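Dear Dr. V.,

Thank you for agreeing to look over these. As mentioned in my earlier message, I'm a first-year student in the group and I'm still getting used to reading structure tokens, so any feedback on how I've presented them would be very welcome. I ran two proteins. I've put each sequence directly above its structure. The first is here:
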Amino acid sequence: METHNGTTINWTTDYDIFKLVEGNRNPDHSHVRRIKESILSNGWFSTSMLTVSPAMRVYDGQHRLWALREISNNFVSTWKPRDYIDSYITLKKEPYVLLKEIIDEYNLTYTSVLSLMKGVATHQADIIEFRGGELKVANPLLVKQQAAWINECRKYYPYANNSNFVHAILFFWRMPEFNPDEFLKKLKAHRNLMYPVTTTNEYKKLILDLYNYRRKGVRLVVTQF
């Protein structure tokens, strides 16, 4: 709850508590759609309030209420990652175009591509950002190159598109002394040393062991995963 210019403002996500005033006009569905797109793209503006009676009857803002109800129902009940992607592509958000392109071309999970875009393993905050239309990518070309490299690994290790493998390899890509081309050659020559595991840390250990296997020169050292 807050007060603005003498008006008490309450916040809620329980849209079922509101009632429509009898006799109000039927919803303009195109207007509801435009409001939904605005909310999905820009968020909810604090000045976009619903005016209600003490009995929670909506006197002003019924189209905003319909839009919020539709968004809530879709997001909670039916929306899948591809729905978010397609929705934001419709709104011409370029990072989502790139996301879809890489998923389709390289058969990567959307969380793996999100990780490539962020440069680190995906966390819940990144999922929330993705769902809210706030996905960003600093270097699209690098993301494409990394996705292609992972796809090349799949020739010798079919599970290289596993999100845990992707998160693990991102860990090594941040190390200046790690040479991706050298690792790829090792994987091609000793593919039996790379096998499915269940966690990112297990993949880090496998990658490190393979990278250092019969390595000439200084071995790559990781003190802590």
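The second protein is here, in the same arrangement:
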Amino acid sequence: MERDITLRIVLEAPPPGVDFGVQKGRGSAFETIQTQRSTGGDLSFEFSVPVKVASAAGAADFGGPIVQGPPGGRFVYIDIGTVAGQRDTPWSRRLKVPLSGITAEQVRRVSVGTRRALEARVPGTGKDGGPSCASVKNFQGWSQAR
């Protein structure tokens, strides 16, 4: 069964003065949506994605133009700096937020129409003091948003 769910990514305290946004599309035919410039506080990105669940106990498989990667390894990119379209920055990065671990039960609870979302909170600043990049480190997973 296919349905849409709402996902929210909260980027915690990214460095100020840097643009961040959600990547829509793949390869050279992508665009950055929901672009926001950090002031040092948390940034929040919310969007809907289609999901298929084979059975109540089955794994969720995501699709649509925001979702990247192969089945079993799906993720969402947060574009950073020049990748997000910012011109006046030295930063040119992407942050990969995995969709792994989302269960069929979580999908059922937050299907569009319930006005609920699944939320992932990820660090916005890396060890080098710049924006976090590559795959999210120590990913805590997805939970129902409050």
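From my reading of the second output: The mean pLDDT is 92. The first helix runs from residue 104 to 110. Does that match how you would interpret it?

Kind regards,
E.
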